[in-house]
Design goal:
alpha/beta; 6-stranded parallel sheet; 189 residues; 6 helices; 6 strands; Rossmann fold
Length: 189
C-alpha cells in the first residue's frame, strides 16, 4: 500500500476548538497509509476575482494552491455556523478552485467530518461543504458519514483531546474507510 499525503483543512482556529480536536484525533487513528498535513486556512485573504484578473494574486493564495497541489487527498473538518460552514472554509474552497483552470482539488479524494455541540453533528455544514466541493471535483467519500453531535461531551477537559472510546471507534472506522477510498480514487502517477 502506498503512502498518501492528506491535506487537513479545519474550519475553526479558536483555542479549544472542537474541530481541531476532531481533526487531530482523526489523524491519530488514521491508517499508516495516510500522512496528515495540516493546511492553515484562517489567514487566507478572501477571494476577489479582480485580484486574479489584474495579476495581483496574493502570495498566500499562491502558496496555498501549491500546498493543495502537493496533496493526494483531503480531510475537511468543520463546525456548523448557521446551518452552513464558516467563512474561512468556504473561502479556502474558493481560493483553491480559482482560476477555473486550476486543478488543485480536481479528481482527488476527500472526506468531510462535521461537529456540533448540538445533536445534529453539523449536518447542515457537511451538506453545504459537500455542495461547494462539487464544482472543483473533489471526489467525496459517501459512507460512512462523519457527523459528530454533542462533541463537547467527548472531549477530556484536562487534555482538550477526544477521549470518548465510542467516538474514537467510530472515527477509526471512518478513517479506515477513507484510506481505502484514497487508495481507489487518488490520481496515480
Amino acid at each position: 500500500m502506498s503512502k498518501y499525503r492528506i491535506g487537513v483543512l479545519v474550519g475553526s482556529s479558536r483555542r479549544g476548538s472542537f474541530s481541531q480536536a476532531l481533526a487531530h484525533a482523526a489523524c491519530e487513528v488514521a491508517p499508516e497509509s495516510l500522512s496528515c498535513t495540516f493546511i492553515e486556512i484562517e489567514n487566507l485573504p478572501f477571494y476577489d476575482q479582480d485580484l486574479e484578473e489584474s495579476g495581483e494574486v496574493p502570495e498566500d493564495w499562491t502558496a496555498f494552491r501549491a500546498e493543495l497541489e502537493s496533496c493526494d487527498g483531503f480531510l475537511f473538518v468543520t463546525p456548523e455556523y448557521n446551518r452552513s460552514v464558516p467563512a474561512v472554509m468556504k473561502n479556502a474552497v474558493d481560493v483553491g478552485s480559482r482560476p477555473a483552470s486550476t486543478k488543485t482539488w480536481y479528481g482527488k479524494p476527500g472526506v468531510i467530518l462535521s461537529q456540533s455541540p448540538g445533536r445534529t453533528g453539523g449536518l447542515g455544514a457537511s451538506l453545504a461543504l459537500r455542495q461547494a466541493l462539487v464544482y472543483p471535483n473533489v471526489i467525496l467519500m459517501n459512507q460512512p458519514e462523519g457527523y459528530f453531535g454533542e462533541i463537547a461531551a467527548t472531549i477530556d477537559e484536562a487534555s482538550g483531546e477526544i477521549s470518548d472510546e465510542h467516538t474514537l471507534g467510530f472515527l477509526t472506522k471512518i478513517m479506515e474507510a477513507f484510506a481505502d477510498w484514497v487508495e481507489r480514487v487518488a490520481p496515480k502517477g
